[in-house]
């Protein structure tokens, strides 16, 4: 069975004659798809960057005693555990003032 690659934008001279008229001049199509690929890569890079940024933002709970950061989703129980194991001499609210009622 003959499979024409034109639909995938991979059409070349060795592909079926029926689609030769769609062949772009000077291989412009290849250039275009390469640019599109690069643009897509840039997009992914940007997405990754913003992901990192939001990860950083998510580390919004900080122990004021040892400056360790925690995800903003960290529960009070976990904070308490940290305070009790790392700073048994310090008050929980000294480590995490935001837990103060
Ligand atoms: Zn700490």
Automatic annotation (TrEMBL):
Residues 62-99 form the At2g23090-like zinc-binding domain. Pfam families: SERF-like_N, zf-met2. Residues 35-45 have a biased composition (Basic and acidic residues). Residues 27-59 form the Small EDRK-rich factor-like N-terminal domain. Residues 26-53 are annotated as: Disordered. InterPro entries: At2g23090-like, At2g23090-like_Znf, SERF-like_N, ZNF706/At2g23090_sf. It comes from the Eukaryota. This is Uncharacterized protein. It comes from Ceratopteris richardii (Triangle waterfern).
């Amino acid at each position: 069975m003959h499979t024409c690659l034109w639909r995938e934008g991979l059409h070349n001279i060795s592909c079926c004659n029926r689609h030769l008229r769609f062949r772009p001049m000077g291989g412009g199509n290849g250039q275009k798809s390469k640019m599109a690929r690069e643009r897509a890569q840039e997009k992914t890079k940007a997405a990754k960057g913003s992901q990192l940024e939001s990860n950083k933002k998510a580390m919004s709970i900080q122990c004021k005693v040892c400056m360790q950061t925690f995800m903003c989703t960290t529960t009070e129980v976990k904070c308490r555990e940290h305070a009790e194991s790392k700073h048994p001499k310090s008050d929980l609210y000294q480590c995490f003032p935001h837990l103060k009622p």
